[in-house]
Write a structure and sequence with these properties.
With 403 residues, the protein is an alpha/beta fold. The protein has 15 helices and 13 strands.
């Protein structure tokens, strides 16, 4: 049997016909063309892309197809999508194929987000290594100078480690309405606002109602996406910034880690006590390279905050101790240190003697990286970056099976 197996979704994994038919009939009713022949709808709309079906059966123009699809999604996204069921035997088949070590994927013309929701709803997503949807929507928003203060506020929220949600109401394509939903307003100084702009505390573009916006984000599995809310179409996006990987030490392992981490979405900063090992020419992928003699004032100089992931890979035990002691005083999301378990105990014993509690040391990942038997610098980089990604996704604890 083949190693890689691709499945369609509608009509192969699940019987989505009833939900699709209901939403098509709803869309036709909204378009002023009710369709009494349900069987004709079944024959035409189950399988092909909606645009093809609306055009071939009713001769709709591209603009009319777009409007009909908007009406379809208005009903389908909240009702029709769940008027659906897996075919008999499908869960058992997928379980057996995964148990046999097969690689499974879904290839569907359904939008990616909807395909994910169907698979999650019926507990089928766990079996698939890849889900590919068949449509894409491009949203364009013209930003104006008057919105500069809004983005300054968002920047300040991120600096203070806060969270929020962006929503953009795109129901009126010519006049999108952007709003920022926060838990609380940050403690900002007047100088953070661009010249000529007042504070936005009372602006309708800023709402202190994060709890009301979070369910929208959760419906999208905490990813950016478009939702249909009755008559409104709303783009939802988490207020987020890329994680920052701070590499303490610029040796050969750091060089491999930096390139892979940057390719995986991390902003990379490098610090070393030797100028030749913290040279931008050596680390062209890094945002910045700092030279700190003795790694002094590490937290302040590097601005370590809640978005930081700190990897300690210096050239000696004494520098590891110094970097780790300082990193533990920060709010870094992750701290890891390279080295053997014997080295870890030596460093930890020294820090305990300096008054560092065991509860803080227990949060450090040492030896750094997932235990995959890595030996070369490039292999070590794979284990380290995999651990960083797991830490960001919240799955690290169960992956550290060796612990």
């Amino acid at each position: 049997m083949a190693q890689y197996i691709f499945f369609d979704l509608d009509g192969t994994l699940t019987d989505s016909g009833p939900g699709i038919i209901h939403s098509v009939l709803y869309a036709l009713e909204r378009m002023g063309r009710p369709e009494p022949d349900v069987e004709k709808v079944r024959r035409t709309f189950i399988g092909p892309p909606l645009t093809v079906s609306f055009h071939s059966l009713y001769g709709y123009t591209p603009q009319q197809c777009q409007q009909a699809i908007a009406y379809f999604r208005e009903d389908y996204n909240h009702k029709g999508i769940y008027n659906n069921r897996p075919y008999d035997g499908i869960p058992e088949l997928l379980h057996d194929l995964k148990a046999a070590g097969k690689t499974l994927a879904v290839a569907t013309s359904k939008p990616y987000q909807l395909a994910e929701r169907v698979l999650e709803h019926f507990d089928l997503r766990q079996y698939f290594d890849l889900v590919c949807g068949g449509s894409m929507e491009v949203l364009c928003e013209a930003l104006t100078p008057e919105q500069a203060g809004l983005f300054a506020l968002a920047d300040q929220v991120l600096r203070e480690g806060g969270r929020g949600v962006w929503t953009v109401d795109v129901s009126r394509e010519s006049l999108p309405q952007r709003r920022l939903h926060l838990a609380t307003l940050p403690e900002v100084c007047p100088e953070v606002w661009p010249e000529g702009f007042a504070r936005l505390d009372g602006s309708p573009a800023v709402r202190v109602d994060l709890d009301a916006a979070l369910p929208l984000l959760e419906e999208l599995k905490n990813k950016a996406g478009l939702l249909s809310l009755g008559e409104r179409a709303v783009y939802v996006e988490p207020l987020d910034a890329p994680p920052v990987l701070l590499l303490c030490g610029g040796g050969h392992v750091s060089l491999e880690v930096a390139g892979l981490a940057q390719a995986c979405g991390f902003v990379v900063d490098v610090v070393d006590d030797r100028p030749e090992f913290s040279d931008p020419a050596r680390f062209p992928m890094a945002r910045r390279c700092l030279t700190l003699p003795g790694f002094e004032n590490l937290v302040e100089a590097c601005g370590i905050g809640r978005r930081h992931y700190v990897a300690i890979v210096t050239r000696g035990h004494s520098f590891d101790r110094e970097a780790l002691a300082q990193a533990l005083t920060s709010h870094a999301s992750y701290i890891g240190m390279i080295g053997s378990k014997a080295k870890r105990e030596q460093v930890y014993a020294f820090l305990r003697a300096q008054g560092v509690p065991d509860t803080e040391l227990a949060a450090v990942r040492c030896p750094i990286g997932l235990p995959i038997g890595a030996e070369t610098p490039r292999q070590i980089a794979v284990s380290v970056v995999a651990e960083l990604l797991a830490a960001r996704a919240g799955t690290l604890q169960r992956l550290r099976f060796e612990d």
